[in-house]
Amino acid sequence: MAQLPSKTKSDSESATKTSPEDVPPKKCLDDFISALPTREGWARPLIQYKKYWFNPVMLKHILLAEQAFVPRADDIILAAQPKSGTTWLKALVFAIANRARYSFSDHPLLTRHAQDVVPYIEIPGAGTGHSDIESSLPSPRILATHIPLSLLPPHTTTCGCRIVYLCRDPKDVLVSRLHFENSFTKASNISMDNAFSMFCEGFSPYGPLWDHCREYWEASLVRPNHIIFLKYEEIKADPVQVVRKLATFLGIPLTQEEESSGVAQEVARLCSFEMLTSLQVSKVGVTHHVGNEVYVRSSSFYRKGKVGDWANHMSQEMGEKLDAIVEEKLKGSGLVF
Ligand code: PAP
To answer: Which residues of 203-241 are buried (b: 16+ CB within 10 A; e: fewer)?
Structure first.
């Protein structure tokens, strides 16, 4: 049972909340970012901005989004700490929101990468990202983000839009992160021990993980009609039930007729790890272009898709240590993993 948070939303947000005045003009962004603390260790150096660590290219786009992104009351925003199952969530929400539009046998998700059907607020390219293209998307938009709640563009949490936040056991996030980092280039060879130490310090892309989760968790308790907090493990345990829950949260609950014809089961099957990884579009090519700055192999978004794979990569003792750190950091919030 969730306890009420010890801090109110306004307390936790005001601690780090950014505002457009804090962000330098576009032409000065590179200088601004290069003056921030930098640390190496992951495949690319990370920059610290207001307690969170970012890839410098991403940080620039987050700051640009801060100035340019205009949220709409009917937006659906999918938020997650990276490697928590964003790809899965994108597929699920896209399929739920468009279920009247597409047949399951001839569905866009069968030919388009799940990452590409929902644009990121902070990642331009592939038709996305705080650009003219994004602002011209028809309502209701489905958008994704890894941006911490306290750094979201102004009014995103208060404009009335719905936010779906997805978190995952931090141990599995770490293992997924390590494999993802080591897949960037052949030269990337970060050890589990190093990744573990960095992660335990809160030093990881969009980390500390616990602050990221805690901000959305606390906001979801304050505004449950606008922010829903999900766990990867919960979707794994009963994807069909989560499809129903998401449809209801989004204001488009499944009808009796849809229940009878098995729509929730069809959505869960279409978005399953087995289905998505069987598709050609998940096996070849690249996705996520930010100019030429960032690209990722399409296949890198799928690895094992399991709960508890951490135990194959770190010792029991390491698992317990990370659990204890996370528990301590989340103390008083009511959020537990
Ligand atoms: P991102 O942060 O780069 O967007 P994200 O999709 O959040 O990645 O996380 C990737 C993880 O979700 C991978 O976990 P793993 O490394 O432990 O295997 C990936 O396998 C998993 N994943 C992607 N799609 C699905 C799915 N349909 N069902 C279950 N897990 C999935």
So the answer is: bbbbbbbbbbbbbbbbbbbbbeebbbbbbbebbbeebbe
